[in-house]
Design a protein that fits this description.
Length: about 300
């Protein structure tokens, strides 16, 4: 089993970072390194990292660069064959977690990402992977459901949630956009859907491994405040521009007519300021997203 690079992004994570890193340090029978990228925490997170987790290397950003850019920094400064992207509020629940996800990946060379079973603190399912619908809406598989025996079978899924996911470095290298793995323009949210779509277009598969368990405590993507709604709205369109197929583009007017126009009208009525900001930034980034699309699309469609 190759070296695993555990990459954790923090931002005012004082409440969660100790259980997170302690669960990594408790891992057995796996060689790993830990890289933490801190996005300008001001709550004592950096002091905890320096005083209690000397094994973890730390990058201290002077400002909040966003989640995708911080992940890019971490991956670029590590050397592992495999990369575990781990949210600062996630705990690995079994001490053979790293072994299980790596063994799953090593069984099939076509697998570029392994999705563990992630639970909420109350024991309900947080995610078993990401699904992308005909309407180009994305959701976490089985979110909010009971953890039942039928969820204990391995299966291939569209994508993996970045709360906790193991990537094959070779797969990430194959879909880089310039020097970036994750799209830094997303800032936060939907970057995992975007990278899952790009991996799929390069014929990499994502495997759900239910025997690797983790608990997700906070969950930024579950919030419904103005900022997360703005990011979800904005980044969904950026993702579609970058990844949709030729035939998919032909059906987009129909999707917009029967779904998007009504949803956007509702969003505009509820929060005009953030909706307008999202639309303006999509238009401003349109050309840049199209160039990124052309840079990695294997069929140039």
């Amino acid at each position: 089993m190759g070296l695993i690079s555990v990459v954790v992004v923090t931002c005012n994570s004082k409440k969660y970072i100790e259980p997170c890193l302690n669960s990594v340090l408790a891992q057995q029978n796996a060689g790993f390194e830990i890289m933490v990228i801190d996005n300008a925490s001001g709550d004592g997170t950096r002091e905890i990292l320096k005083n209690r987790f000397g094994r973890a290397r730390l990058i201290e950003n002077p400002a909040n660069y966003g989640y995708p850019q911080a992940l890019n920094q971490g991956i670029a400064n590590t050397t592992g064959e495999f990369i575990l992207c781990l949210n600062d509020d996630v705990e690995l629940k079994n001490n053979d977690f790293l072994t299980r996800v790596c063994e799953s990946m090593e069984k099939d060379r076509r697998v570029g990402a392994v999705q563990p079973k992630i639970l909420k603190p109350d024991g309900l399912i947080d995610t078993c992977g990401i699904a992308l619908s005909f309407l180009r809406r994305f959701h976490d598989l089985n979110n909010g459901k009971m953890d039942t025996p039928d969820l204990n079978r391995e299966k291939y899924v569209f994508g993996a949630c970045n709360a906790a996911v193991l990537y094959r470095r070779k797969a990430l290298e194959g879909i880089k956009q310039g020097n970036d793995y994750f799209d830094a323009d997303f800032f936060g949210l939907v970057e995992d859907v975007d990278i899952s779509w790009r991996l799929g277009k390069r014929s990499w598969r994502t495997l759900y491994q239910p025997l690797a368990l983790a608990v997700h405590h906070r969950g930024l993507s579950r919030r419904r405040d103005n900022f997360t709604q703005y990011l979800n709205l904005r980044n969904r369109y950026l993702m579609i521009i970058k990844n949709e197929t030729f035939w998919g583009f032909l059906r987009l007017p129909l999707i917009f007519l029967f779904y998007d126009c009504w949803r956007n009208l509702f969003m505009f009525m509820v929060n005009r300021k953030y909706s307008l900001k999202a639309y303006a930034e999509v238009l401003g980034l349109l050309k840049k997203m199209w160039h990124k699309r052309k840079a990695y699309n294997p069929h140039n469609d």
